Amino acid sequence: MAAPSSRVSVEGTPDKLKVAVGCGVGATIETYDFIGFGTAAALYFGSAFFPGSDPLSASLLSFATLGIGFAVRPLGGLIAGHLGDRVGRKPVLVASLLLMGVATVLIGCLPTYGQIGVWAPLLLVAVRVVQGLAFGAEWGGAILMTFEHAPWRKRGLYTGITQAGFPVGLLLANLAFLVSANLDGTWAWRVPFLLSAVLIVVGILIRLKIDESPEFEDLKQSGQRAKNPLLEVLRDDWRNVLRAFCLRITETAGYAVAVTFMLSYLKMGDGPQVSESLSLFALTTAAALGIVATVWWGKLSDTLGRRPVYLLGCAVTVAWGVPMFLLANTGTAVLVVVVFVVSYTVCQNSLAGVQGAWFSELFATKTRTAGTSMAYQISAVVSGFTPLIATALYARTGWLGPALLFSAYGLLGLLAAVVTKETWGPGQKSEVDRLSQAKEENAVV
Hints:
The protein is mostly helical. The protein has a single domain, classed as Up-down Bundle (Growth Hormone, Chain: A). It is found in: Cell membrane.
């Protein structure tokens, strides 16, 4: 662990909390936009853009559109990773938020199949591609800005604050859909997307006031920026890219089964037949609890280490697959809420809360944005098409297929966590204490 420079402090920068919250607000807005599409795809887009199909086929087509956004996220991550390590973290953050906002408002304005025919789903796909590029650029920049401003002993906590922006966005998106469900016709899904315009203005104003990462400023001043961050990280650190990719799949693809597919499953003809309002209420409750849970899991990783917390989350995911569907199949309101709360606050949040710090610590500063963004966003391709895969499995095997798929994702993460090095164990903590003490002694002298 290198000694901190005059610009970089073990105790973080004076603006560390403002940066964490500011990045979290941006993450909130982008998640509201991107995840809102998933809710709309599960509940509305089948009939609006793919009419004439039976419910199962409409769900498959709608989820395929959802998956396209995930498929292009790696491209957004690659572009942002290169620019983040070459130009800076802040410009990428502002650009990604602006691009996402424009795309989301356009979704709210799209004509339906009944109005313009086949052009409607084509336009939906085009705008979804733009959303995917923007969201792919978001995570790496937001997390690394927070990580590089944060105190070294509390990087799990601070990146957890930024990561909590994602459940906040999920909460706001589903609150918007819960309220708009009472509106007539297509306004039930248009209004939540149109409301994004207000959030984008707020987010841009906040992000423009955030200072650039001190670690990036050091790299730029010393002339040590990577000439080609993507090639360097693939050449020198491809193993960590692969490990982080597998670790991430458990969280993001698990979410795709437990939340995105589950929303559709609960209202399928031969499913439990749970009302849309109950499903959205259950997810909204889980998202609200997830705000606190994400930060708590991140803070816990500062105490126990990154790997122990991740191992726990993956083990619970492996065990939860079948019980999750058994509880959902009852159709009982309380148990449906339990399904979403456990799936989100434990299986998903325990992993998301740790990723910001762990993934950042796996890579060197000069290729950190490229490495983390690549692993994070390439895994999104798997998660993006997981609802489609889960729906196809359900058509052939019933609920057991998606349940076992969920557990399989957990097992993959469990194995990846075992072979990934601990970056915040006793040795690293002792080294930070030594550096901090040395700095205090120098200050006294």
